[in-house]
Every structure is written in C-alpha cells, then in structure tokens.
Amino acid sequence: MKRALALTLLAACGDNAPAHEAFEIVGHSDLGARGMSSALAIAGDYAYVGSRIDHQPVLIVDIADPSHPEVVGEIGAPDEALGGMSSRELRAAGDLLVVLNLQCSPTLHGCDAGAAEVENLKFFDISNRRAPALLGTYPVTSSSRLAPRSPHEFFLWRDPQDPAHVLVYLAAPGVPSLEIIDASTGVPMSVATWDPYAQGGVPKGGENNILHSLSVTDDGTLAYLSHQTSGLFVLDLTSMTMLTPPQNALHFGVMGPHSVVQVPGTKLAIATEEVYPPPFGAGCPWGHLHVVDLADPVQPTSVGEYQLPENDCAADAPMTAFTAHNATVTHDLALVTWYAGGLQAIDISDPTNPTRLAELRPEPLPQVAFEDPGLGGNKVEMWSYPVIRDGLIYVVDVRNGLYVLRYHGRWQDEVRAAGFAEGNSNL
Question: 114's torsion region: left (phi>0), alpha (psi -120 to 50) or beta?
Fold first, then answer.
C-alpha cells in the first residue's frame, strides 16, 4: 500500500522539535468493508476486532507486516456473531483474549430485537493466534429484576509482580455496578463486587447516573470511577472504600466522565465526556477532554480542557457526533478517538493548556455493508482505544476499518519508546 501523510498541523518550536506534527498512515485494512466495527485487542502479531452489530464475527487480523494488515480468520458462531449481541470490547493479556458481549440496540445499532444469549464476558485461549479456543463464559446477570445489570466497559489489570495474575474490573451499570473477576487461569471466577450507591454513597437518580467505566493504577491499589452524571470518584481497592466524598466528585458537561486514563508517572489523568446527537443524547455542545489532577483523591480537580472547533456547534449535523471517546496516554501526549473528529494527538505537557498537535480524519470508504443507523451522519467515526505497539498506533474507525499509524512530531519519542500501551489496561 502506498504510504500517506495525514493532515499536518502547527509548526513546532522549541529545542529539538520536529518541523511538523502529523499522522502517517503506515497500513490500513477495511476489514472487508463491513462497517460497524468496534474495539480491538492486540496479541503478538495479531489483532482482534469486534463488532458493534450482531451476526458479525470477531475478525482476526495478521499485523506481522504493519503496512499490509490482513484478515486471516474469525471467531464466529456459536461463540460470537450471535443475534442481538455485539462484541463491544476486547482486551488481550499474554495468551488470553477477553471479549465483552452485550445486547445491542435495534434503533441505535440496527441489531435484532432480543438477544441470543445472556450478556457476558468470554475468555479465549489464543496460544494459537489464528484459532482461538473458548475457555469459559462469565454471564453478567442480576439477582434482582428491579436492578438489572448490563456490562459496558472493563479494565484488564495484570499484576506487575506476577504477570500470570490477571483481573478484570467490570463496569456493569445496575446492582452491583462493579465486579472484579479473576481470569488468571482463563476460567473466570468472581472475587468481589461493590455497589457505588449502597457502599460508596453515590446518589441515585437519572438514567445516565451509571458507572460507565473505570481504570486501575498499575499497583492495583486505586480505581478511578467514571460515574457519568454523578462524577469522577477515586476508590481505594485495598479496603473497597470511596476516597472521594460524593459532594466532591468532579462534574462536567451534561453527561459527565465517560472514561478516565492516568497519565504515566504523574498524578494526572485524561478524562473524556461522550455526548450523542438527538434522539440518543443532548447533542451539541459536544463532550470534550479534561486534564484532571488526582493528587488529592478527596477532591479531583479539572485543571485543563481541550475541544475541537466543532464544539462551537457550527457542525450540528443530524446523526453526527464530534465528541471525545477513548484515550491512550504517554507522559506528554494524549491520543484520543473523537468520532467524526477523527483521531487527535494532544500535547498535555502543560496540563493547564492542552493543545492540538495533529489529527487524522481518514478518507472514507466509498461504501460499506452496514452503515451506522444511529451515528452515520459523518463517514468518519474514530472510536476504539488506540493501541501502541512497537512505536506504531493501531486504531479502529467504526465505518472505515483498522488503521496502522506512525506519529511524527513533538513527543514522538514517547510513542516510539512504548513497547505496548492501550487505554483500558495496564499492560
């Protein structure tokens, strides 16, 4: 494939600064031009890409040659690609692949009404990367019909002292909202649950007042909870007690925190807010990025913000969202998927003044098999957590497939020095 250089922005200045900032497209797979792709996980020379729609498999992509990523297999029925079910989130650790399967919406996603199975986490042995073997299924259910649970995101934590020790921290809005699952053997086992309302004092009320996602510090002692309209909290995992009083939670926007990722080596974090267009959400002004100071877990504080020009509502097009989604972060650089705003590279070296370095809004495919029925008003829909592997950035656009990128510009050495990094794990 001919290499391309994406939009170049902002002449750089300062000591040893490069002449420009840009994303270079090293490789691209349209994933069969299927559309409606979701998250990705990377293990060795293979990537696994899920689907936001039902009846579509998890695709297996050979990335040994990053300039020519090639679909070489799939995980299909009876394990995946079932009616009414979406393989929404994926993470990998060693020879273990974890897939979160949830019931997708007929209206928002175009899925069947009703689900073929209970929402769940599935654990696959990928020691043979091209032939994943199901190890176990962990159903996500509720003990009460009055407080149903639905899995949404999860953080995959690997013990730095014992890499064989793997835990899944599952955000499942409902009661209990947080569940910790031991996946060390590949056979999932619940080890703890926690209810932010009854045990953490989070006030109840409102359909968006949910534990949307969380992240965990490398040492496994703290969790940062994105509880949307109730705000951002810090949880002590050693005692399962909330360090942030409910009245001190960090609030912003109409939705509040969507996801939060710690800035390596600091007491800072990058928090995003996700706002959907009507009728699924409030629409413009779109959610954007906050730099959060977590030095005092009793009082998280927003110290800086970043948004796109479209946040002035000049581009309030139907079925289009210029909203922040998921971040992967180095010490001075945030890589953030932004739906119609593409992939953003943001300088966070001055946390009070995050600034744009580069962006990628790829040329859309001429057509795909499944257009997004809820958010397809713009043909760019950057969505996944970016994954850094061997200095390259892997990211999925819902419509246009898998991109392999090289970042050129300020803080490029941090990206190139990262052996592996992704937004919702400590791997």
Answer: left
